[in-house]
Amino acid sequence: MSTFGERLSAAMAQHGPLCAGIDPHAGLLSAWGLDDDVAGLETFSLRCVEAFGGNLACVKPQSAFFERHGAAGIGVLERVIAGLRDAGTLCLLDVKRGDIGSTMTGYAQAYLADGPLSVDAITVSPYLGYESLRPALDLATANDRGVFVLTLTSNPEGQRVQHASAPPTHDGAAPPGSVAAEIVAGVTADNAVARAKHLLGSVGMVVGATVADDVRRLHLDLSAANGPLLAPGIGAQGGSGSDLAAAVGTARAAILAASSREVLGAGPDVAQLRDAARRTSTRLAEELA
Ligand SMILES: O=c1ccn([C@@H]2O[C@H](COP(=O)(O)O)[C@@H](O)[C@H]2O)c(=O)[nH]1
Known about the structure:
Elements: H1 4-15, E1 18-22, H2 26-31, H3 38-52, E2 58-61, H4 64-67, H5 70-87, E3 90-97, H6 101-112, E4 121-124, H7 134-142, E5 146-152, H8 159-162, H9 179-190, H10 192-196, E6 203-207, H11 212-217, H12 222-225, E7 229-231, H13 241-247, E8 255-259, H14 261-264, H15 270-288
Parallel strand pairs: 1-2, 1-8, 2-3, 3-4, 4-5, 5-6, 6-7, 7-8
Helix pairs in contact: 3-5, 3-15, 6-7, 13-15
The structure holds the ligand O=c1ccn([C@@H]2O[C@H](COP(=O)(O)O)[C@@H](O)[C@H]2O)c(=O)[nH]1.
């Protein structure tokens, strides 16, 4: 099988840069005329699969909105994942997992090995240390899956952690600067083999569409990292593809722009939802060009 980076490159070339979110907020269920229960969750989510499957490069279910319904909600998530797989559309599960290595192995097995929650890629949180993610990084590589490491998140609170200076390493090597820069350095190293083959790497970063100024302020070289950049914050959070594209240099080609509420507001009609996603993808392609 081809690597996740190769599959994502091909999908973006075919369908454009939009990664539509499936975020079944209680408010959106209500706006679609659905009850805030498992039946409403299932109707909402499977309409999204019908609208987006086969039409977009990637779809990003937000695990939180399935987990809040308990085991039955996870069952719906399993059916969403299966539906996207059947449609041939990449599924990036936004689940932001991160733990000590031994536990991280369990999370990696849940999402990056074969099983009911197996997806093409997941989001991971590096705040227990980039190397604590090693079990997920290694299993993703072994199974041709991907991970997206939180690097500069779209929310304003993230700055206090992500802009902080990284302490010196135990071996005395000079730290690369900020916490965010340390994560970029880890991703750069993990994508080196793909880079040598002139392929997009399978280790991506989450860099919010709202934080273009921070990318410049921290002097992050996202091009050298050679991974896809998941850019949430388009639409409802006020971010724009063009601002981020201007800040990341040649990495703009690797921006996978995530938008949830802006697109989902076009439901519940499947055709209108599909049209909204296509329009957003076309607009984002222009902003990122
Ligand atoms: O830095 C981050 C990381 C993840 N997200 C997630 O993306 C969507 C955004 O939803 P919108 O409705 O388009 O604002 C949501 O699932 C977040 O958890 C993020 O926003 N920022």
